[in-house]
Amino acid sequence: MSLTVRAAVPDDAAHIVRFITELAIYERAEHEMKADESMIRDTLFGDRPHPHALIAMKDDQPIGLAVYFFNYSTWLGHRGLYVEDVFVTSSARGQGAGLALMQALARIAVDNNCPRFDWQVLDWNQPAIDFYDAIGALPRKEWLSYRLEGEALKRFADSGARQHD
Questions:
Q1: Would you give the distance in Å from CA 131 to the centre of its chain?
Q2: Across the strands, what pairs with 44?
Q3: Spelled out in words, what is the top-level CATH class assigned to the domain 3-158?
Q4: What is the C-alpha R_g of the chain?
Q5: Bridging pattern class, strands 117-118 and 52-58
Q6: Which one is predicted more confidently, 15 or 164?
Q7: Which of 44, 46, 49 lies closest to 66 in space, CA to CA?
Q8: Residues 66 and 53 sit within 8 Å (Cβ to Cβ)
Q9: The 78-88 sheet, strands edge to edge
Q10: What's the rounded Cα separation, in Å, for the pair 20 and 24?
């Protein structure tokens, strides 16, 4: 078995959509999945790509995905690496692909002078929590995640001043 991790390319768009869909199903949020191949091609590989993606390969077959982007820490005065998604197909779990993806992400963070990389995990996803604990990651219990989306986001945007300085 040959396990490798490589940068995603535009021809991976169908695989990426499949992995994201499988992840959404696993996370019980399939109804939130809106991305299609053209959206993935545009946002990951278009003129102004902000996110990046890695593909885990086993014997020339894509089996996993990591999507990440660089954020910024005002406290540290450095950019950091934020992992949006890490996913390995159910048939390939336990074979090292998740570890290889996380190690590749750590290498990218170190190579880009990022003092840390962050991600979130659903509180019920015990296999992922156990994996992150095993690699030495620490949960950030002092922070809460917030989100504005959909109509609430539009209402809030429309409720304020229209100045963009």
A1: 16
A2: none
A3: alpha beta
A4: 17
A5: unpaired
A6: 15
A7: 44
A8: yes
A9: 3-7, 52-58, 61-73, 78-88, 117-118
A10: 6
How do 78-88 and 117-118 pair as beta strands? Answer: parallel
34-59 confidence digits (pLDDT tens): 889 998 898 888 887 689 999 999 99
Q: Quote the CA–CA distance of 163 and 165 in Å, as a whole number.
A: 6
Please give the structure tokens belonging to residue 49. Answer: 């790509």
pLDDT at 163: 56
Q: 51, 57, 47, 55: which is closest to 35 by C-alpha? A: 51
State both tokens at 62. 């894509």
Distance CA 27, CA 24 (A): 5
Spatial separation of the C-alpha atoms in residues 22 and 76, rounded to whole Å:
35
> First vs last Cα of the chain: how many Å apart?
55
Task: Identify whether 132 is a catalytic site residue.
Answer: yes
Tokens coding 153: 């986001």
- Catalytic residue (choose from 68, 72, 82, 132): 132
Both structure tokens of 74: 């005002």
**Percentage of the chain with pLDDT > 90?**
76
